[in-house]
Specification:
Number of domains: 1
Largest sheet: 6 strands, mixed
Order of helices and strands: EEEEEEH
Radius of gyration: 13 Å
Mean pLDDT: 94
Helix content: 25-40%
Low-confidence stretches: none
Number of helices: 1
Strand content: 35-45%
Distance between the termini: 31 Å
Oligomer: single chain
């Protein structure tokens, strides 16, 4: 599931068994990764679970607005949260050179 160069990877197999919570990751256009602990919720939020490190741009607790029942909904969810994720990715890219 790709939106704007970002790819959503599922850890929780929402297609095999419907669920309102799960784990996933996002691969940015540069190949770096961020982790997601997600839940379907009408309340929009993103909260840091694990800080940046040199290998990934954090792990984020995040809400998805659509049920995670198929790939189409997963793509819609990624599109819905992508502005927030891009912001975190951009912060990590600014932070990373200071640590190398």
């Amino acid at each position: 599931m790709n939106v704007g160069g970002f790819t959503l990877g599922a850890i929780t197999d929402f297609e095999a068994e419907p669920t309102d919570t799960g784990d996933a990751f996002v691969i940015a256009p540069d190949g770096s990764r961020g982790g997601l602990v997600w839940e379907v919720s009408p309340k929009r939020y993103i909260q840091e679970v694990c800080a940046f490190d040199q290998d990934r741009w954090g792990v984020w607790a995040i809400s998805f607005p659509y049920p995670m029942k198929d790939r189409d909904h997963a793509r819609k969810n990624l599109a819905a949260v992508l502005p927030d994720l891009k912001e975190r990715w951009e912060e990590w890219k600014r932070w990373l050179p200071e640590r190398q």
